[in-house]
Amino acid sequence: MNREDIKVMVSLLDDTDIEVVSIIESNLKNLGLEVIPILEIEKKNKGLNPIVQKKIEYLVHDMHLSNLFAEFEVWKNTNPSDLLTGLWLISKYQFPNLKIETLNEEIKNIQMEVWTRTQNKMHPNDVVKVLNDVIFEHFKFEPNIKNFHSPSNSMFNMVLKEKKGNPVALSCLYILLAQKLDLPIYGVSLPNLFVLIFDYPGYRFYLNPFNRGQVFVEKDIDDYLKQMNIEPNEKYYKSCSNIEIIKRILTNLSFAYQKTGEESKKLEINELLTIFE
Questions:
Q1: Phi, psi (deg, nearest 5) at residue 175
Q2: CA-CA distance, 194 to 248, in Å (whole number)?
Q3: Domains of the chain: which residue ranges?
Q4: How far apart are the C-alpha atoms of 99 and 101, rounded to whole Å?
Q5: If you average pLDDT over every residue of the chain, what do you get?
Q6: What pTM was computed for the model?
Q7: CB contact at 8 A, 88 and 98
Q8: pLDDT tens digits, residue range 218-243?
Q9: pLDDT at 205 over 90
Q10: What burial class does residue 258 get, using C-beta atoms within 10 Å of its C-beta: 0-12 exposed, 13-18 middle, 19+ buried?
């Protein structure tokens, strides 16, 4: 279908017949994502009815959202070991045109700085010191204490851009770097806190990225759970899956939208969460 045909369909979006409008919207959706750039151009037409402009906006959002559902299903079922793709998909909710290559390049830049400072057979503690120094001193990342519940903490592109994040966002940065550097660093999902485990054979310890990569041990988790009045559970001491990480980020994002009063976004994120039930 050419652009002129699409323009005709757009002009019918303000038809007084609700059934006609519904058919037009359905037909536009069936054309797929390729039609979105044309719709975006039409939306900017100054002579277009503002009501139609709003309908185009909702239509494009619905198309992006439907595609996002499909992409999350594929990721969950075929490639959950790829954490970066999961983070990218979450970011695409707010930034649908974001390219995964953009995130990958950012991670590579940080990885190269770590790589130039590490040597073969370094002690794990020394490797962690390098990671902490590169992330917090060289690249100036910091815990987002002031806006802890901001939706931007769940958008990894914004975390990389603003150099701020919540515990799970900063942990994801460590995990992605660890994957590229072949380091045994994984996420640990604690109640109200997300940390990391350095699971080296015969030498295991934990990291708290939200406290600038502070190292701690298993007893500290015991004390934390006791302080929170939570019964110890084996899962609080072991690494979690990437699917659990993505679920936790989506849960945080839903709560963030609730805090900002964006109810429709909260409900859409809750719908995305049902994919993982």
A1: -60, -45
A2: 9
A3: 3-78, 83-276
A4: 5
A5: 93
A6: 0.91
A7: yes
A8: 999 999 999 999 999 999 999 999 99
A9: yes
A10: middle
Contact 221, 234 (CB under 8 A): no
Residue tagged 């151009």 (tokens): 41
DSSP β-bridge partners for residue 165: 143
When pLDDT is cut at 50, 70 and 90, the band that residue 50 belongs to is confident
Structure tokens at 198: 């350095």
Q: What is the 3-state secondary structure (H, E, C) of the chain?
A: CCHHHHHHHHHHHHCCCHHHHHHHHHHHHHCCHHHHHHHHHHHCCCCCCHHHHHHHHHHHHHHHHHHHHHHHHHHHHHCCCCHHHHHHHHHHHHCCCCCHHHHHHHHHHHHHHHHHHCCCCCCHHHHHHHHHHHHHHHCCCEECCCCCCCHHHHCHHHHHHHCEECHHHHHHHHHHHHHHHCCCEEEEEECCEEEEEEEECCEEEEEEHHHCCEEECHHHHHHHHHHCCCCCCHHHCCCCCHHHHHHHHHHHHHHHHHHCCCHHHHHHHHHHHHHHC
Pick the CATH number of 83-276 from 3.40.50, 2.30.30, 3.10.620, 3.30.70: 3.10.620
Q: Are 94 and 155 in contact (CB under 8 A)?
A: yes
Tokens 């619905």 found at? 62
Residue by residue, what is the 3-state secondary structure of 35-55?
HHHHHHHHHCCCCCCHHHHHH
